[in-house]
Amino acid sequence: MSLWRDLAGLFFPEVCAGCGSPLVMNEDLICTSCLLHLPRTYYSREKDNPVSQVFWGKLDIYSATALYLFKKGSRVQHLLHQLKYKGNREIGIYLGALLGNELMESILFNTVEAVVPVPLHPRKLRRRGYNQSEVIATGICRSLGAVLDTRTLVRVHYSETQTRKSRYKRWENVKDIFDITPGTDLAGKHVLLVDDVLTTGSTMEACASALLSIPGLTLSVACIAFASH
């Protein structure tokens, strides 16, 4: 089996999902150069960071972070595009695990007990085949040792794509589309809400508003990338 794998690697070398360069021994999915140069934020070390500030005066969020900064045309965008539109779930699990490792080392996040991904509407889920936020959350849970909860938060209405919408239009598009499944067991727990990219925060706000209706719930949020303005 090792021989066949080596031969396959010779004729069809695995390439980095970030830059397209051939991967070398002990590299997996993303090359060492990309891992070193991707724009890490380390916001998990700061209570009042730019991601947290998105929610100031709106919701009672305990802590918030993003793994990377997002810019159009960047390697971060390329990685997330492969996850969201090219079916590369391994990228989501890999990035989620990286984020989970960082959260595990933070006193702001290491008490998280459950991870809730931003849900897709069933129609969109059938079309895409998977929820990219759930894939990321799976990776986070593997590193953080938390429980993945895909049942409590549900999307009850189909919404249009958020691309090219203004902040107000984004909020109008999502404000009433999330709900809580009756009989939830998240009361009194520290819960992490997860998405792939945070832009205006409208989707996260709508999800957070629903989750914060659960008695005693402490809510933190995390995403792979933050599109700062």
Please give the structural blueprint:
Blueprint: H1 2-11, H2 32-37, H3 50-54, E1 63-69, H4 75-85, H5 89-104, E2 114-117, H6 122-128, H7 132-144, E3 147-148, E4 153-155, H8 167-174, E5 178-180, E6 190-198, H9 202-211, E7 218-226
Helix pairs in contact: 4-5, 5-7, 8-9
What's the CATH topology label of the largest domain?
A: Rossmann fold
How do the helices and strands follow one another from N- to C-terminus? HHHEHHEHHEEHEEHE
Number of domains: 2
Helix content: 25-40%
- Which range does the strand content fall in? 15-25%
Tell me the Rg in angstroms: 18 Å
How does the major sheet shape up?
5 strands, parallel
Oligomer: single chain
| Largest sheet: spatial strand order | 1-7-6-2-3
Assign the CATH architecture of the largest domain: 3-Layer(aba) Sandwich
From the N-terminal CA to the C-terminal CA, the straight-line distance is: 50 Å
Overall pLDDT score: 89
**How many DSSP E strands?**
7
CATH classification, class level of the largest domain: Alpha Beta
The structural class is: alpha/beta
Number of helices: 9
Q: What would you call the shape?
A: globular
Contiguous low-pLDDT stretches (5 residues minimum) are 1-11
Structure description:
- The chain is an alpha/beta fold and 229 residues long.
- It has two domains: 1-37, no CATH class; 39-226, Rossmann fold.
- The chain has helices at 2-11, 32-37, 50-54, 75-85, 89-104, 122-128, 132-144, 167-174, 202-211, and strands at residues 63-69, 114-117, 147-148, 153-155, 178-180, 190-198, 218-226.
- It is globular and about 50 Å long.
- The model is unreliable at 1-11 (pLDDT under 50).
